[in-house]
Protein: DUF1000-domain-containing protein
Amino acid sequence: MAHHHNASCGHESNDHDHDEHIHDTSDAGPNDNLFMHIDRANVFALNANGNGPEVIKPWHERTSEEKSLESDSDDQLILRIPFTGSVKLRSLLLKTGPADQTPAKVAIFANEDALDFEDVNDKMPIQEFNVVQSREVGEYAVKAAKFSNVSSITLFFPASQGADTTRIYYVGFLGHWTERKYNPVITVYEAQANLADHEKIQGTNDIFSTSQT
Structure:
């Protein structure tokens, strides 16, 4: 399959930048798909009929329209997506719509875990895209340098393209995931210290209760 300008695969022609990132759209999905590194249980949607995790789908369900997330009281929608580690983001994948239920734009914020509708109007997103009306999954390539150490992404959809509500079918990410680094020495030391404290307290309690009787 040619990798340039193939609308059906939803990838841009910049794949040649990184040979290791050239991928097909087989069920295995691209090897840099971050689906398995999303903390789905803590994905959260504001002003939505639904919670949010339903649009975080595995690669093979990316074109499915069975489950979707729709805005509630108007056409604005916020979706917060935490990761289980540190992510270097390369692309946002979106399937939205149909037609004028497609969001006009998507604004992307990183590491903002408590944004609400008041906050998003005061803060500048790191990047913003106009969303294309399509039944396909669109790939929006981000400025990777600005998303090099991401623990969560917040997506803000400020308006639909004319409908009363905005609808999202699929949200995905391409990029590189690394495990968060913890210092095991401190962890081991704390565990031992707690154990010693615990034993000492046990002993003190025994003496204390004996002297009471």
The chain has two domains: 7-181, 183-213. Residues 1-28, 208-213 have pLDDT under 50 and may be disordered. The radius of gyration is 23 Å. Residues 183-213 form one domain.
